[in-house]
């Protein structure tokens, strides 16, 4: 797993794996008769489980704090698995198959289910709310890849705060069209505070749109 | 191209191509000695060019109208190339290589450059603005795949309006942290009207956040 984390899969050989594990090459083949592809998929499955643990967060406190906590863990994972994370998600990799794609899609689905459960809707989440959450998750992945590609700038806590703000913005925009999302936003607001992410976003957005009276 | 549009690449054979083109299989091989992979890449390059033409839009009128026009053309392309579009972007396809990934990334880059040019910043666009635009483009791709997967619901004009609103929301949230983006938003506002997407979004967002006075 540490080899696949720091190198693209095509740059990891079975000899490297045997050496890192301190065992012989035949022993690696005994446990992984499918060779590198099987080894890679096993490592990916294990990383996917680790990643899904990142999303678990108790359903207490402001929604933005819960999201920040989960994002902190997710971004730490991205930071640690940089080369492997990029290789996996950028596509066109030699080890990419419908099986690896399914593992990655499973992680995305788990992330979406976690977020939707925190939104605490009475009815099962509708199409618009689901779409909003899935789009944001894709956007977070894209931002993570760009962050890795751009020498890990800005610092992680800035990136995390900005991603939380993007989530709030997307959710509020969907709330304008979707009653279920609007109810979730209204339910979340009382737990948010002026010194939290929503307060800071609200205060900084107002001066930007102060000249928009003609739209109302 | 029409075969790759309606079927996944693994379901298109060279015999199918020869038959659809009304020529012999040897003639197809004469022009495409690399076989199906070369044919697929040629079709993809041609589709990428067609897609890049979708983004061209004169730099006049409200920003949201320009974005709506380009999105209408993009979504019509998605609608027409459904199976091929999904196969290409979902990953794990047998014909996916670093070359096909590069072609798709080229389309994404072109889309980002078009949008950034319409934002009319004085200085070259900074990291935050670029990241916001790139994240929205990824989110549009994700929404397109989900739309294809969910029996093309909601209707295209609803999806388009909602994607425009998501863009406005993401841009305004970034403007809260980034002076260049704030300047672009302020410059765009006077051209927007109360009966356009920004007006409709603003009026419908206000009641949702009316209980947020404690955040200010």
Automatic annotation (TrEMBL), chains A, B:
Alphabetical UniProt keywords: DNA-binding, Transcription, Transcription regulation
One function term, GO molecular function aspect: DNA-binding transcription factor activity
One of the Pfam families matching this protein, by short name: TetR_C_46
DNA-binding region coordinates: 13-32
Domain HTH tetR-type, chain residue ranges per copy: 1-50
Domain of life of the native organism: Bacteria
Matching PANTHER family: HTH-TYPE TRANSCRIPTIONAL REGULATOR RUTR (PTHR30055), TRANSCRIPTIONAL REGULATORY PROTEIN (PROBABLY TETR-FAMILY)-RELATED (PTHR30055:SF174)
Protein name, per record: Helix-turn-helix transcriptional regulator
Organism whose genome encodes this protein: Streptomyces apricus
């Amino acid at each position: 797993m540490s080899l696949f984390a720091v190198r693209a899969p095509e740059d990891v050989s079975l000899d490297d794996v045997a050496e890192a594990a301190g065992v012989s090459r035949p022993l690696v083949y005994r446990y992984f008769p499918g060779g590198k592809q099987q080894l890679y998929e096993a490592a990916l499955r294990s990383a996917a489980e680790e990643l899904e643990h990142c999303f678990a967060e108790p359903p207490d406190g402001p929604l933005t704090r819960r999201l920040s906590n989960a994002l902190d863990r997710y971004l730490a994972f991205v930071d640690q698995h940089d080369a492997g994370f990029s290789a996996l998600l950028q596509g066109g990799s030699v080890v990419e198959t419908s099986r690896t794609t399914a593992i990655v899609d499973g992680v995305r689905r788990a992330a979406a289910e976690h977020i939707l459960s925190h939104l605490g809707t009475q009815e099962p989440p509708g199409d618009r709310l689901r779409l909003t959450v899935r789009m944001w998750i894709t956007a977070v992945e894209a931002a993570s890849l760009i962050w890795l590609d751009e020498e890990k700038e800005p610092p992680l806590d800035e990136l995390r705060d900005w991603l939380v703000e993007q989530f709030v913005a997307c959710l509020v925009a969907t709330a304008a069209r979707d009653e279920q999302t609007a109810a979730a936003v209204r339910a979340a607001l009382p737990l948010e505070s002026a010194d939290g992410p929503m307060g800071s976003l609200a205060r900084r957005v107002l001066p930007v749109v102060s000249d928009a009276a003609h739209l109302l």
